[in-house]
Amino acid sequence: MNRDEAKRIADLLSPARLGPYLAASGGDLEVGLRLYAWNLEAGCAFSGALQFLEVVLRNAMDSRLAAHYRRRDWWNEPSLVLADYARRAVDKAESAVRQRGQFVADDIVTELSFGVWVSLLSRRSNYYTQLWWPALRHEFSGYSAQAPAALHNDLSHLCQLRNRVAHCEPIHHRHLTKDFESLLGVLEAISPEAAMCLKRFSRIPEVLDRKAGVLDGSLLPRI
Known about the structure:
Helix content is 69%, strand content 0%. It has helices at residues 3-13, 15-24, 29-69, 84-99, 105-111, 114-119, 127-132, 148-166, 176-190, 192-201, 204-216.
């Protein structure tokens, strides 16, 4: 890419979007564009891994809570007091599913965001007493039953990463190796097989190793 091409691409991306990458690259336009491209590459790699985590997490939690409350729509159990945030999300999900014509509990599980599932592991609405102790602690064997806050903290950071990837925000400044380790750690606590599967097939380690080469121009980014 020559200088004129780089300028045209920069204009298409907009100064506001490219600004953080230029700042991180000392104002060098070509390096800033390479960093932007590598950020896309990293985001794509993490997107698949985070999707895998989200599905495994919500299915594990849903299964455990359905068994505990002995009803498929455990979120409507009268004795369960959900925080306003979660209750609004459930009501919105049920409304959306009903508008499609057929009401299936699995559709509600799919409709709820990653953030809602993570919130159920927090201290809000007395979730430790309602959900963690009687049910969810049995689903995360790798975390101390005495310290669910550590699990919630790890998942909150991963949720933040997921949101940044989904909204095309910079993630290059994060400790992405640690993020990947945290992701694998949560999966390991739920299912060692799931963690091994992701570790075996993820391209995240390769992408992280390629960063220096992409930035100095010796490697082409792979989006």
